[in-house]
Amino acid sequence: MSISVLPRTQASSTNSRHFAPRSLLPLETESCWKIETGVVRALSWLEDGTVVTLGLWGAGEIVGKALAQIDPYQLECLTKVEATRLETDNWLQTQSALLAHIQQAGELTLIRSHRRVDMMLLKLLNWLGKKFGRQVEQGQLIDLRLTHQDIADMLGSTRVTITRTLNQLEQQGLIRRLSLQRIVLQEEEVWHYEI
């Protein structure tokens, strides 16, 4: 199956919408969302209320209830988001979209498989840096405003444990925390730490 996404110039302007940080993308069975700008988190939760992050999606990626047979399911905007609504009869790109979802699920499963929280956290920060970061003089800037609770939800940990582990990683010089919940990953030292 091949991708046939309408180019942005051909998409109806009524299909493109803007969403505020921490707002939810509407879930409709007859459509998906193509993220134009920003970052969206797919999530679910267990019976006890534990939040489970299923994936993080950025510009050019497609998200929607049609791609996840999980209930409950939500799409939360982590940043300001512009997204274009794609009707299911207009998008035959399920193969690429599904492959991206499967790949990300595998990557996050592998990250969560580490036994030590510090390794899980370093792997997650490295993954976030590759997916959403940019190179700066000091390392890889993860310019994504994730709370300690967001990170805990992604790793199946607690906010207190993540806060403590971030403090330890910063003391070891593996990361540097900046204002507005941004992190610089000191790449060279991370590889040394992983060996």
What would your notes on this structure say?
The protein has 195 residues and is an alpha+beta fold. It has 2 domains: 13-109, Jelly Rolls (Sandwich); 114-194, Arc Repressor Mutant, subunit A, CATH 1.10.10.10. Helices cover 33% and strands 27% of the residues. It is built from 5 helices and 11 strands, in the order βββββββααββααββα. The chain has helices spanning 94-112, 117-132, 148-155, 159-171, 187-194; strands at 16-19, 31-37, 40-45, 51-57, 62-63, 74-77, 81-87, 134-136, 139-142, 175-178, 182-185. Strands 1-7-2-5 form a 4-stranded antiparallel β-sheet, with no helix packed on it. Strands 8-9-11-10 form a 4-stranded antiparallel β-sheet. α1 runs antiparallel to α2 (117-132), α2 crosses α4 (159-171) and α3 (148-155) crosses α4 (159-171). Residues 115-188 form the HTH crp-type domain. Keywords: DNA-binding, Transcription, Transcription regulation. It comes from Trichocoleus desertorum GB2-A4.
